[in-house]
């Protein structure tokens, strides 16, 4: 370790946050309906597994695209040899049109303003390198995606200053919260280079309102800073209000030839909308030619492979397919979100009203033994080790209020989701009983006999090989 760089030794990566720890615990004991029915159910992973049948059926009908052929002739050599680091023009055109379609064809996107990256992870980091210097700050509304600590800060040495949002107004961004964050950065002697939002929000599962978008545009205009809008969930809006991209707001305001037009940058990826995070396909869209040029050079560190671009250019150019996929996928997501809300409601748990994404923002404040983050961790540990659900605590998303959790619903089968809901219901009942009986929570959870009975309630059978002792 002594011989390694400071970067390797510093822990700004955030790998030790409960968000990643939960994944590690899940991997030690993953749930499987048949092989490990008492294992941990993964509800901390924002994966979209609901529409693979649609992708598979398209692949089956398009053997040329899958077999790297054009009009029956192999183009393997063309794809396997040199790749122009600016990306395949056919893919960039298809991606720009797909992004327009998701935005209700209300915005015109030029393929020359797109920079391809290995997922949104790489897009966000690349933008940090382009827009800010080490020690500069970006303002982010809380709660935010836990991966941002790694993606935005770790290698770039940029600081994140939170824009504190809270439950009193459904975690909406306000003018005063923006100003307060800016002042906080100034107090810390940090130069603010921009604001980064996710729209729709991870972890809230809500789209930004027009009011918030206008606030943001006015704020960055007044301060002369950048706005990054991470729109990775833009194709997953399944309830009204519809998704509005900040680009649409600028167009409606006729800002096309003004300075601010160059200060707004969009991050996108196919990881969520098409459910293919393993393919590593992301993009930056910017109207600023200098940003596009610098980001294109940097993209050499994280290109999208030629065969992936070739395959996806064929898929995304098939407009009939993309239309059906997007609308069917939205229907399936809506159904899942309703299942989760119903299941949690049966257990006496409420969620923030949401209209997008792969998760709900779940309110478990009533289950805390005190209004503290220690109590949040206490309940999180019970849920992961004893109930067997990996959910993400709000503290890992830098939420300012204890007791909120992000719960994913699209990375499992309906049966698994039902099983998770059953477990949570039993858990809440047992918690409530404990409260009614007035016994001390900590005492309760430290007593083996009570753990035994909880494990029995949860799994309806013997607890022997249920690994709650860790
Ligand atoms: C808001 C947000 N941005 C970026 C990412 C990273 O996505 P990718 O897999 O495309 O790198 C995620 C993944 O969960 C995310 O939620």
From TrEMBL:
State the Gene Ontology BP annotations: ethylene biosynthetic process; fruit ripening
Q: Which cofactor does it need?
A: pyridoxal 5'-phosphate
Q: Which residues form the Aminotransferase class I/classII large domain?
A: 41-424
Q: Which GO terms describe its molecular function?
A: 1-aminocyclopropane-1-carboxylate synthase activity; pyridoxal phosphate binding; transaminase activity
Q: Which UniProt keywords apply?
A: Ethylene biosynthesis, Fruit ripening, Lyase, Pyridoxal phosphate, S-adenosyl-L-methionine
Q: In which pathway does it act?
A: Alkene biosynthesis; ethylene biosynthesis via S-adenosyl-L-methionine; ethylene from S-adenosyl-L-methionine: step 1/2
- What are the EC numbers? 4.4.1.14
UniProt enzyme class: lyase
State the SUPFAM superfamilies in the record: PLP-dependent transferases (SSF53383)
Task: Kindly state which reaction or reactions the protein catalyses.
Answer: S-adenosyl-L-methionine = 1-aminocyclopropane-1-carboxylate + S-methyl-5'-thioadenosine + H(+)
What Pfam families does its record include? Answer: Aminotran_1_2 (PF00155)
Q: Which family does it belong to?
A: Belongs to the class-I pyridoxal-phosphate-dependent aminotransferase family.
By what name is this protein known? 1-aminocyclopropane-1-carboxylate synthase
